[in-house]
## 1
Amino acid sequence: MSAPLADMRRLAEMADYIVPFAVRVVGDFKIADEFAEGPRRATDVAAALGLHSGAVERVLRALSVKEIFAEVEPGVFALTPMAEFMRSDHPHSLQGTFPLMPDDVQAWAHTAHSIRTGRTGFEHVHGAEYYDYFVDFPEECARFDRSVQTLHVLMVRTLLPAYDWGSLETLVDVGSGNGAFTAELLARYPNIRATLFDLPHVIGRAREELTKAGVADRAETVGGDFFERVPPGADAYLLKTILHDWDDTRARRIVEVVGRAMAPHSRIVVLEAVPLPGDAYDIGKVMDIKQLVLFGGHARTEEEFAELFAAGGIRLNRVIRTPTLVIVEGVPEGAAEGGRA
Ligand SMILES: C[S@@+](CC[C@H](N)C(=O)[O-])C[C@H]1O[C@@H](n2cnc3c(N)ncnc32)[C@H](O)[C@@H]1O
């Protein structure tokens, strides 16, 4: 194919949302699990799952073009290395990572509103901000929570070796979700005690994760609002993928609340994307559009973090890049100078 045609095809394939939707239904219906023992007829899989046989075959065929499945003979499909990650029993399973959430999709349908106004499509269509809206939809809220947590194996693998977690004795996980990351942290470092802090209707799910990891005796769960207060005096305040959800006014408010809770020896440890300048590859730059359309926040550069921290009396101390998220550490202003990694 000539270069311009190849570019046209690439653009057309990237621009269409057929594949993202197809991948999401495959995940939601756990279709990849049906192929764990080897190739199978799409019609048999559809019958086993109570789905429409022609539709399942068409979805699998479409995804085979993208090497997510392979059509090994007409109507018979097999997993590819990519599809293996869609199995729910894979140790690094992404089966629940991309749920098809109709409320999100409705917000994406109003991306034009976001581009015109800088405000979320989510609030435009649902009349409420993301986290407020899901209070009334616990099942969807749990699916969202799970989608965030499914990436935690990858996060744990990259973020645990990159920071001196072992030097901490107490940690508050601010906006912990179901707390899978901190549960793993506690399992790895027996000297740490943690408080998991999230909205009252969310925090209930954290106990289960802590018990599963065998660390429930070193963690407490607290329901509350991080715009009001967080538990005081911990060695570290962990904010994993929190600040990017909020505009500058509200992010500043969270940092002020954390700043007030910090003791002179405390640190704030933010884990999220920090885009690199220029057009270097950085998934954070892509995810930033999700912040624009769904949450109303944005990704921040190192300079923007320094400014944000300053609002809470915190000095940006170190920025550590890992293959997944970036670790941004801050200490109370006036604390001893630290090295930049
Ligand atoms: C993107 S999730 C991140 C969860 C977790 N830190 C992680 O990375 O897996 C954002 C979390 O912030 C919580 N959250 C939102 N508003 C909050 C508030 N006002 N007070 C406390 N937690 C809040 C949500 O319930 C959600 O669990």
## 2
Amino acid sequence: MKFDEAVFRLDGVEEVILLDEIPRRDNFLEIIQNIYCPDPHCDARLVFNRRSTGKNYLSKHKSSDNDHDIDCDWYNDDVKTVKSITEYTTVNGGLTEEGKKRRKKEAMKALRDYLDPPEPKPKNPNKKPTPKKKTTESTETKRGIKVNYDPNGEVVQENTENGDFKVKEPSFYERLPHQLSVKDSGENLRTSAIIKEVKIFKSDNPQAEIKTVFGDIQITFVMPEPFFLGNERRLSVDQLIEYLEIIKKYVEAHPNEIYLTTMCQSRELDMEDIILYVLEPDFMSFQTKDGRDFETLTAVIAAISTGAI
Ligand SMILES: [Zn+2]
């Protein structure tokens, strides 16, 4: 049975928090260190898990001395079911156009949901956990492919059992700035922050930086040379620089109005000086504070150039 809420317990203060609300809280990192089974008589620790699809779920902490209370509604969940182990082969690969689009849409929705949380679904008070069937413990091994993002990589296809191909793309984890921690070092991420300043370094090796804020967190997005020079771009270097200059001017005239929502990569994260890398112009999308979403760099440039925003 899934948990749709958890008890956040810290320094003797308790609060029941709905699963969907956890990632929106400013003290997200503190909450996920201190969540427990929602049964009032149970002290089992819970873990907040995030799938790369953006779906979140709660599970029981897997330490041996962390069982549910015998009278807890979730006690039966402790009965072991079939363990499944997936052995992954790691390969490098790129993303499809469709894959980038879908991830950016999800990232834009995550910001909107944070800024304007949807109504929580009403709880069904009669819902009782259904006891799980006891199964003998056994292990099955599956095989899978894990894809590391490579900006110049081909899109990876995996053979399925029925002879078809399935596109396998690297995962990009949703992390709003207040959810970022050193654990997110060396990952593909999706995030959002308000653009404060655009810096462009024109030379034979062009680079740019977008300085952003989110609450009291500052993030620098770096657009390294591959952003400008990669081989699959539809935009030339000059065009990209011109576009960034348009955004730079717009931000100077309209500070605190536009969010960069982007797919990006982290290296070793320093929480005092957060730097994220944007390797493709196609990773960027933009969102205004008043609710307008622009899926691409070209779309926001068109809106600025025509005075639509
Ligand atoms: Zn419990």
